[in-house]
Amino acid sequence: MNVSDSGIVGTILTDNGFQLVNDTSEADVVLLNTCSIRDNAEKKVKNRIQELNTIKKKRGLIIGILGCMAERLKEDLITNYGVDVVCGVDSYRKIAEAINNSIDSSIALTVLNSQETYEGITPLQINTDAVTAFVSIMRGCENFCSYCVVPYTRGRERSHSVKSIITQCEDLFSKGYREITLLGQNVNSYRFNDGERTTDFADLIKQVAEINPLLRVRFATSHPKDISDRLIDVIASYNNICKAVHLPLQSGSSDVLKRMNRKYTREEYLEKIKRIKATIPDCSISTDIIVGFCGETPEDFEQTLEVMRIVEYDYAFMFAYSQRPDTLAAKKYADDISLQEKNRRLTQLINLQRDLSMASNRRDIGKVYEVMVEEQSKRSADKLFGRNSQNKVVIFDVGDFKKGDYAKVKILDCTSATLFGKTL
Ligand code: 5AD
Ligand code: SF4
Fold this sequence. Notes:
Layout: H1 2-15, E1 29-34, H2 39-59, E2 62-67, H3 68-73, H4 76-81, E3 85-87, H5 95-102, E4 107-109, E5 132-136, E6 138-139, H6 150-154, E7 158-159, H7 162-174, E8 179-183, E9 191-193, E10 198-200, H8 201-209, E11 216-220, H9 229-237, E12 244-246, H10 254-259, H11 266-279, E13 284-291, H12 298-311, E14 315-320, H13 328-332, H14 339-364, E15 368-376, E16 383-387, E17 393-397, E18 406-414, E19 418-423
Parallel strand pairs: 1-2, 2-3, 3-4, 5-8, 8-11, 12-13, 13-14, 17-19
Antiparallel strand pairs: 6-7, 9-10, 15-16, 15-18, 16-17, 18-19
């Protein structure tokens, strides 16, 4: 989401006479696009602001904070951290003016506006060498998972127009991009009404896939309560819609899920997984998991491990619960699992996932995949780096390929994170 927002800010600023530079040392203005999802994300930004303040003292610099931390901490960033411009997620149209005015006095723009979708602004692609791009299809979130700060920092859910999304994807394809990831906090609640018809996410992804069979389409994130059978059928029926579903579990215990306000049970989640696996047999499944949420007992935690073993995730993002101020969980439940215990559970989770990823990759040895070439491998000049439809990284021998080409690769070996193969 932040990559796409940085692109929006990039377009607004370049349209207003600003220029992108490659390094902080050449910059008159440094903008940090920030995330508040966990406390350590905020801590990193605070350290970076300190570093920038050292430069500011030496030679003058305008420091701007964008994104969720701007929305959450507001004027505090000016008063206590030496920031010049604080610009929240719905105020980017005013960013150029704010930077210019900040020369006289610092400024904070943090009013949320549920109408703002940045219609008409095509995000600047900051890495123009890449063949993969992200396209944001909606903003905000109204799910109010009890641990999560996003509904407060990014505001009401709203969908971008079908026309703006399709135009952006067509434009990216014509510039040589070959893979687009459609992004939203919960893409399954995408809805756009143009007066005559309502387009939902299954309709939208079909339209994107139909731009060209050589354009791969991915999407993230799906909320388990909303992922529809129709969407699962659409994924199965289009070759260029990637066979990879990211379905955040968060916890394998129905009790914990209830306190998390996730609105599904362990059994309902497992039913969805069953449906996906039955309809798309070669689909990879990845997830997000939080350990050490308020009141998580050893038995609750064991249930999470159990779901991981049942689903056999190909990949997982795993986090220790970090209490965020003003969320429902912060108001209602005690953050009662010690840091040491959270970390112990996290390590156990990571170890299990490493074994599951390894087992999943071993099952791929001998199979042949269509791999899209992304770049030269960073580790060795005579290898290429790409991904298969399942979103697994594949390293293979250099053939007569350029970025964005599809190579048929037979898998010969693996680690828990990477597949190695040779082209056929
Ligand atoms: N603490 C830890 N992890 C969190 N996430 C969201 N909020 C928190 C929090 N307070 C995780 C969830 C989500 C992912 C993007 O970040 O797993 O799916
Ligand atoms: Fe946060 Fe839940 Fe919305 Fe995801 S769906 S952004 S976890 S509130």
